[in-house]
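Q: what does this look like with zinc ion bound?
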Amino acid sequence: METYTGSCLCGDVAFRVVGALAPIQVCHCRQCRKAQGSAFAANTPVREEALLFERGRDLIREFESSAGKWRAFCSQCGSPVYSRHVDAPGVFRIRVGLLNEPLDVRPESHAFVASKADWWRIDDHLPRFEGARSSSSPVNTEAQNRPARACLDAAVPQLPTGDIETSADFFVTRLGFQVIGKFPEHGHLIVRRDDAELHFWRAESEQQARRIASASSCYLRVRHIEALFDALQALGAPFRFPLTRQPWGMHEMQVDDPYGNAIRFGEPLD
Ligand SMILES: [Zn+2]
Ligand SMILES: [Zn+2]
């Protein structure tokens, strides 16, 4: 079963969440902004029996921010840990920023957008609620029409490899990806960096992988490509060409992987 670990900033409060996570709920209410010192709180509700404290439960203090609503934080470092409400017994709304592993859930909605920080722009298409998530229908019409409208999500390139370990090692050490799944028995590898996921299938031979890879490529869109360029340079990524301002209005760079798959990164020039 999936298990996630989490801790506060000082590390003295640590816990484990057992089982799949619920989608992340983003709350822009004034209380959450104050409690996080930020634009919003990002929470996932966890059932009491799935939340195991490993240490520091005695360090947690709870503050009743409104009648029946308790916000818990580490008394040493101040990290918000969870909130709970007497109306939802046995549910802890864990602050997802405390979790250590890459998550396979994403935000599903924005609550209390009526009291959102004016300096924060919401630029996704998730349902937005003026107040609590459950109390009304979303205020953005796009989201209201959503169930009827098919919508493509991220595209995942499937690239050939001659050897799962070689590709895994290259993408981790040279390009800063993480291995999300490695299935040598099925000849399959999944790596991810931020929201970009790449899949690899093992060809019949290294030779065949090279032949196919030399004729295929994938394009990854990037935000802040200069920072990525610096990071990849520090990792010793073998650039086919470094960061280049292209005449077609893109800032691009390219790395070829060990089998010759062209991995091109790009961001529009402004
Ligand atoms: Zn702490
Ligand atoms: Zn809130």
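The mean pLDDT is 92. Helices lie at 30-36, 141-144, 164-173, 206-213, 225-234.
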